[in-house]
Amino acid sequence: MPQDCLPHQEPLKRDEARLWRVPYLGGLDVLQARFVKQAFTRHTHEEFTVGVVQGGAAAFWNRGAEHVAPDGSIMLINADEVTTGRSFTEGGYIHLALYPSAEQFRMVAEQVTGRPAVAPHFAQSVAATPQLARRLVTVHRLLIDPAASLLTRDTALQGALAALVTTLGEERLSLPRVGRERAAVREVRAYLEEQAGAEVSLETLARLAGLSPFHLVRVFRQEVGLPPHAYQVQMRLRRARGWLAAGRRLAEVALEAGFSDQSAFSNQFRRHVGVTPGQYARAFAQIG
């Protein structure tokens, strides 16, 4: 069974695979692997396979033909389709895969369109879409980054799955018009301000707003100018600045503001404020 915690960040060893589950959409399996000699005989997965190939090339059989997925491409295996798998090059390749179920993809399609939908069908076994591949790689990076908040991970994953459905799905889906759901956005903003230090999922915010996660991110970004996870960072930093000015210890401020550790806090603080938390605190100490 997949793990429910983040895997280690050490480089993948030869023919090593790490499988775990993230809580989004009721539980989604994630695989990060380096395959060199590993070869897979014909098999099926109950779920879809969405895999990004890095640092080599993968060869596999699917839908009656042999395919090669080069570096930077996306492998797309529909649920219950027969496939194989091996490295196309001697040095192997990195395989970054998500395994959404048909029901999870259907839920994403409904979020995107705002109406009843079915799970998508991907007509291509290999897709050369560099921008979407980079987006999926970012998702995988965030999923193993202990400094990334739950809301950041959820938002990146939700956005990537929605992009897969709208960009590569056989049926072209139209997005509903973005309205001005100001009351819903105000409620989510107030929650993020009040609970700035708490870990909150995108689905929790969507239930609070009475909107789908996809639509919430769209209308929140339009109304506020930032997606919810970026606004959460701003609220955490706002609290942190006040506590630093009052003379509280840096490590204490970092954790209470909602950051995973002092390093993650310092990185975000410098990105947004322009100085380190220590410099900021010393400036107020001198004034006092």
UniProtKB/TrEMBL annotation:
It comes from the Bacteria. Coiled coil: none annotated. One of its GO terms (molecular function) is sequence-specific DNA binding. It holds the Pfam family AraC_binding. PROSITE patterns: HTH_ARAC_FAMILY_1 (PS00041), HTH_ARAC_FAMILY_2 (PS01124). The keyword Transcription applies. Keywords: Activator, DNA-binding, Transcription, Transcription regulation. Residues 186-283 form the HTH araC/xylS-type domain. This is AraC-like DNA-binding protein. It comes from Deinococcus humi.
